[in-house]
Amino acid sequence: MEAAHFFKGTEKPLEVWFSRHQPDTNQGSGDLRTIPRYLYTLDFPESRVISQPARTLKILMSELDPAALDQFYVKDGITAKDVTRESGICDGIPGSVIDATMSNPCGYSMNGMKSDETYWTICITTEPEFSYVSFETNLSQTSYDDLIRKAVEVFKPGKFVTTLFVNQSSKCPMVLSSPQKIEGFKRLDCQSAIFNNYYFVFTSFAKKQQQQQS
């Protein structure tokens, strides 16, 4: 596929992760925690205005609490719908239709959708050595603090980062000047960038207790 065709109409920035080295095929895949992050964006000229509002929030959580992870292991008589309800995930974005699935013997993923085209998706890796949760949504908010708190309460991560892309036509610019404050966590980093048509904010957090011990 030609690059010009691939990028035609693509207005959402792309996040791409590259491994530092090719994994040894005899030892399985590489450790995700050692993979550096690179951000690639397709930016349009200032003369081109994107009239359709767009935003993407990602919450990437690691070092999850073992007790929180236990509910995402397959158990007799417990369905993915049960796990969605009992874990509190169902309360993430009220009014959503949710389709969830469990992996055997462990793991969970879901997709949620509202009638206004709001979507959200969660993917969970439960193994303690590399526990990880990714959360993504295009929900329009002036502040994402409550949504982030809900995610943190469910999964109880030791560390997490958030990324937010907002285009200039979106109605949630206030969040850019109001970095999240999450109880029990210390914000380690907050960075922002302005592109021709998009704003970008990155934040990282760690549990305060971890900071005191380190």
List the helices and strands and how they pair.
Blueprint: H1 3-7, E1 14-17, E2 37-40, E3 55-64, H2 66-70, H3 80-87, E4 97-102, E5 108-113, E6 119-125, E7 132-137, H4 145-155, E8 157-167, E9 185-194, E10 198-207, H5 208-213
Antiparallel strand pairs: 1-2, 3-7, 3-8, 4-5, 5-6, 6-7, 8-10, 9-10
H/E element order: HEEEHHEEEEHEEEH
Strand order of the largest sheet: 4-5-6-7-3-8-10-9
Number of helices: 5
- In terms of structural class, how would the helical and strand content be classed? alpha+beta
Report on this model:
The protein has 214 residues and is of the alpha+beta class. Helices cover 16% and strands 35% of the residues. The chain has an eight-stranded antiparallel sheet. Strands 1-2 form a two-stranded antiparallel ribbon. The model is unreliable at 1-36 (pLDDT under 50).
Q: Gist?
A:
By secondary structure, the chain is of the alpha+beta class.
State the main characteristics.
two-stranded antiparallel sheet, alpha+beta, single chain, 5 helices
